[in-house]
Write a structure and sequence with these properties.
There is one protein chain. The protein has about 80 residues and is mainly α. The protein starts with 8 loop residues before the first helix and ends with a helix.
Length: about 80
């Protein structure tokens, strides 16, 4: 059974800021991945494109793991 925990105003602001930062980083990773995929189509810059795609996927994976860890702890 889940308990509803009421947050103070400071905690709500901190949570909102965290969510905005995560959304911004996710958006930037999508943009970087798009650039990487675009570079993959170029013959001369395939390695750079592959590196950008792998790095952006790694950052997204880290964010997902951190979020899962926080939700498991229950904060």
């Amino acid at each position: 059974m889940k308990q509803r925990i009421s947050l103070t105003a400071g905690e709500q602001k901190q949570e909102k800021t965290r969510n905005l930062i995560e959304a911004f980083v996710s958006l930037m990773m999508v943009v970087i991945m798009g650039i990487g995929v675009n570079l993959l189509t170029s013959e001369t810059q395939q390695i750079a494109g592959l590196l950008l795609v792998v790095i952006s996927l790694g950052v997204e994976l880290v964010f997902l793991l951190l979020r899962a860890r926080e939700s498991r702890k229950g904060r």
